[in-house]
Amino acid sequence: MKAETLLPLTGYVRLKTVLAVYPVSRSTWYRGAAEGRFPKPVELSARRKGYPVEEIRKLIDRPEAA
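Structure (tokenized):
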């Protein structure tokens, strides 16, 4: 499925959605976020984290930056 259909225009998405549009493993994503290659999560509530859609779109548009 294309990123345009899975990602909203703005807001936050959970990791499951991120991995659906940017196919890397969960462990690769966490390692990349720790190293600064991928966006870090934002705390949405006490037990939920999300990723800004704008940052995910930038990553998809410029994969060589990761």
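Helices lie at 3-6, 15-21, 26-35, 53-61. The radius of gyration is 11 Å.
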